[in-house]
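Methods: holo model generation. Sequences were used as deposited, without trimming of termini or removal of tags, and paired with ligand SMILES retrieved from the corresponding compound records. Each pair was processed once, and we did not select among multiple samples. The sequence and zinc ion SMILES for this entry were:
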Amino acid sequence: MKTYHCGSLVPGCDWHTRHEDEAEIIRRAAEHMRETHGETTIRETMVEAIRSRITKAEAE
Ligand SMILES: [Zn+2]
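and the model returned the structure below.
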């Protein structure tokens, strides 16, 4: 299980997600960036920024 906290990229945001699949986390994070932070274009640099901030989550 992996997790991503938007606050690691956008200070003050408490949105986070967790999933087995890194690609799914990036998809959800990109969607969140569009809907919540008004990013109309998700650039490759942003994808890389998200990817580099995905961390291993504790198993539940
Ligand atoms: Zn956010």
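The radius of gyration is 11 Å.
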